[in-house]
Design goal:
Structural class: mainly beta
Shape: globular
Number of helices: 1
Radius of gyration: 15 Å
Strand content: over 45%
Distance between the termini: 19 Å
Order of helices and strands: EHEEEEEEEEEEE
Helix content: under 10%
Largest sheet: 10 strands, mixed
């Protein structure tokens, strides 16, 4: 079976279909690309890992559920938590240590430079439930542009 990555697709991609194509947690899928940025979708439940992106901001849009992001600001000792309900947008500034988490589960849309690691440039030990990746592509079965969207395995 021939497949084609969604980011090269010239047809619309429904967000609900992209999110419905995989169940893996903390393992983002690349829906498409805008210039040199990946548009990623992810499912979240439980805690991610404390990490930092030294050279890039990280954009979050909560599609479903609620996401909380713990932040270490200032000298790294001040911690606060932002709560993002469905439809909320938040940008974690570059060089800010952060840890996303969701008690009841959330679906997310993320914008990050292509090749950005999900665990940043520095991080705490990565637990088994967190996929340290630069994203996995979504694919479509060739000849079925309106069906067959699926995620590549983690």
């Amino acid at each position: 079976m021939t497949t084609e990555t969604a980011r090269r697709d010239t047809e619309p991609i429904l967000l609900r279909d992209a999110l419905g194509s995989f169940d893996a947690l903390w393992s983002p899928r690349i829906m498409t690309r805008v210039n040199d940025y990946d548009v990623r979708v992810a499912r979240a439940l439980g805690e991610h890992v404390w990490h930092v992106h030294e050279n890039t901001d990280e954009f979050f849009l909560v599609v479903e559920g609620t996401l909380e992001i713990d932040l270490r600001e200032g000298d790294g000792q001040e911690e606060r938590t932002v709560t993002l309900p469905p439809g909320a947008v938040f940008v974690v500034p570059r060089s800010t240590w952060h840890r996303p988490h969701s008690a009841d589960g959330a679906s997310l849309l993320l914008f990050e430079p292509s090749g950005t690691s999900t665990v940043g440039d520095a991080h705490d030990p990565v637990p088994d439930h967190v996929d340290a990746t630069t994203g996995h592509a979504l694919t479509r079965e060739e000849g079925r542009p309106d069906q067959g969207l699926r995620a590549t395995p983690a």
